[in-house]
Structures are given as C-alpha cells and as structure tokens.
Amino acid sequence: MSNPVAGLTSLIPRWLFILYAIAAVGGAVANNVITFYASGLTLQSVGVPLRRYQATMLDTSVSTILVIYVVFISSSFLTDVNDFLSLLLVWIGPFAGVWLVDGTLRRWSYDPVDIHTIRAGSRYWGWRGINVKGLVAMLAGAVVCLLTIDSPILHGPISKALAGADRHGHDPPLQVVSWVEEEASGFGQLLLGSRLATGRIDERELRAGIRALDDGRPFFDHAREAGLEPERTSEATGALANLTAWIELHIEQGRVLEDAGEQLGVVEAIAGYVHADIEILGHSDHAGATPMGHAATPGSSPRSSSSSLSAWRSRFPARASLPSER
Predict the structure, then answer these.
(1) Which of 121, 149, 196, 288 has the largest CB neighbor count within 10 A?
(2) Residues 235-238: contacts with CB within 8 Å, 24+ apart?
(3) How far apart are CA 191 and CA 176, in angstroms?
(4) 218, β-bridge pairs
(5) pLDDT for 105-160, tens place per residue?
(6) In the chain, where are the structural domains located?
(7) Beta-carbon contacts of residue 239 (< 8 Å; ≥ 6 apart)
(8) Other CB atoms closer than 10 Å to residue 199's CB: what's the count?
(9) What φ, ψ does residue 92 adopt, rounded to 5°?
(10) How far is CA 180 from the centre of its chain?
C-alpha cells in the first residue's frame, strides 16, 4: 500500500486504527528527540532568539504537523517521502561542502567558547553574524544543484537540455525495468506495462477505462492496493529514454533449450501477437425434424471450416500457429 498508516483504515476496526495512528505519530516524534534537540541548537546558533527548550519545542511542533499531514492528509506517503529526499540534495550538498572546507582550513580546531558566542566579539561572528564567504559558497552550490537536478517534482534547465540526465552523480550504466500486467489477462489488456512506458495509455484510462475482469474495479485502485503509485504514471515514459541496448530476460515456457541441452539462449527476434475475430454464422433449428439439406447450424460444415482455417494460416507462416484441423 502507498500509505502504511492511513492504508489500514479498511482492514482494522476504527477504534483500533485510532490507537494505532496515535502510536505511529507519537513514535515518529519520539524516535527523533535527539534530532529535534540538535535542530534546536542549530536555530540558536544562527541567531534565533529562543531558549534551548523553546527552540526544541518549536522544531517538535513543526515536525509533528508535517507527520500528521503526510500520514493522514497526503494522498501518497511514499511519494511525499521520495520527493522530500530528492530535494534535500539542493541544500545539504552545498552545506556539507562549506562545512568540510571550513573545518579543513581551520584544521578542525575551534574555540569552544567563541563558537557558542552569538554576538559581536566572537572570532566566528563575521559580518553581522554572517560568514559571508560561506553563505555565498553555499548559495552558489544550491544554484548549481537547481540547474542540474532531475527529481520527480523538479527538473533543472541543464538537466532538461541533457535529456533528463542528473549531473549530481554518474548516470547508471544499467537500468532494470519491470513491466506490470505485460502478459496477464486480469484486466483484458496485453502489454499494459510497456504501453504505459511509451505513453500510449494515460492516467485517465487507468482510473476509468481499464477495469478488472473479475470485480469491474479500475486498474488504478488495484495498483494502489498492491503498493504501487499509479498517480506517477507520467514518469514511466522516462524509463525508455536514452537507451543504448535492450535485453529482456525471460524464463522459457517451452522445451527448446531442454531438448538442445542448453541453459541459456539468445533470441534475436520474436513473433508478434496476431489477433483475429472468428464469427460463426447459422441459426438454431430442431435437430430431429430438420433435413440435413436444410440445416444451417453453426459449424455444420467442418470440411469448409477446416479449409478456410488452412488458407488463413498459410497467410501468416512465420507469425501464427493454429492447432491441427482434426
């Protein structure tokens, strides 16, 4: 499920869900007490006029509100978490770079008194409490990140110009793609996953047009219950971008490799799907009282049907295979 907390509302009694939700939110806050304390110290270090307990309570309150939003209000827990993590790099990378350079230049030797003094007179006070060089370096790094980032909700102009490449790291040399409902028939659709990746099916069709054969519910609902995120369908089109080569791994369903005594086979071409609608014409009649010469029941002429099938099969010698006409 896309939300591990709110997704349980239909699975457990309401009173139990309330207790579970309180424990989930309370646990998320309690597990980060040390983090809240440290962030409170950070607020004080940048000059926010709060006592230590006040700064900690402020951070705790803000974090609790965010947890409640993500767990109970947001439509997708995993999407929000992934988006948040993808944007952290914009500031945390430059911040870490400035911190490492400052520590290296000072040989990691800081005055324990001055570093906690947030007023003029401290050797670390800078210009009105701001280290201008460090701030400029951090802002410059953040700008570079914004220009080159390629995250689910933010695409920098340089990244767009490079066809979606994210210059924060090396492009992955190998990409693994797993198609959903590629050969299954639960929704009456073949090649559903690859059609999504090529943009031939949009979110509107997933929400209303493509439905399960057993219960009639849309694919969108079934996908969310299975833990997928169908609302991010538009992102699937990037899975096939900038490919140099394509290899499909498949478990053989026949016996060719077994008969040949081989464990691995490389296929250079495959047979495409052939769809055909067969209509059998006729009308029902009384089997006992109708002379055979006047009968027009479906399938009354096996010989002519067999001949037609053989003629049709001969048109597709390499693409289709029909059972023997016996």
Answers:
(1) 196
(2) 235/152, 236/196, 236/197, 237/197, 237/198, 237/199, 238/164
(3) 17
(4) 211
(5) 988 888 888 877 777 888 888 888 788 888 899 999 999 988 888 777 778 888 77
(6) 6-161, 176-264
(7) 175, 177, 197
(8) 12
(9) -75, -30
(10) 12
Say how many C-beta atoms besides its own lie within 10 A of residue 187's C-beta. Answer: 19
In the block, which residue shows the tokens 């948040």? 84
Q: Are 274 and 319 in contact (CB under 8 A)?
A: yes
> Which residues does 188 contact at the CB level (< 8 Å), separation at least 6?
210, 211, 213
Q: Which residues contact 27 (CB under 8 A, 6 or more apart)?
A: none
Place of tokens 């009173």: 15
* Contact residues for 47 (Cβ-Cβ < 8 A; gap 6+): 118, 129
Q: What are phi and psi of 218, to 5 degrees?
A: -70, 155
Nearest to 277 by CA among 312, 316, 233, 227: 312
**DSSP conformation letters of 245-297:** ---------SSHHHHHT-S----S--PPP-------------TTTS-GGG---
Beta bridge partner(s), residue 130: 127
Q: Which residue has the tokens 């990691």?
A: 108
Residue 183 is classified by DSSP as: S
Q: Which of 222, 65, 243, 241 is nearest to 164 (CA)?
A: 241
Write phi, then psi, for 211 (nearest 5 degrees).
-125, 155
Q: What is the C-alpha to C-alpha distance for residues 255 and 261, in angstroms, rounded to an integer?
A: 10
Backbone angles phi and psi of 240, in degrees to 5: -105, 10
Percentage of the residues of the chain whose pLDDT score is greater than 90? 4
**Non-local CB neighbours of 299 within 8 Å, separated by 6+ positions:** 280, 282, 305
DSSP-derived 3-state class of residue 123 = coil
What is 122-138 written as a DSSP string? STT--BTTB-HHHHHHH
The overall pTM is greater than 0.70:
no
Residue for token pair 């490449």:
165
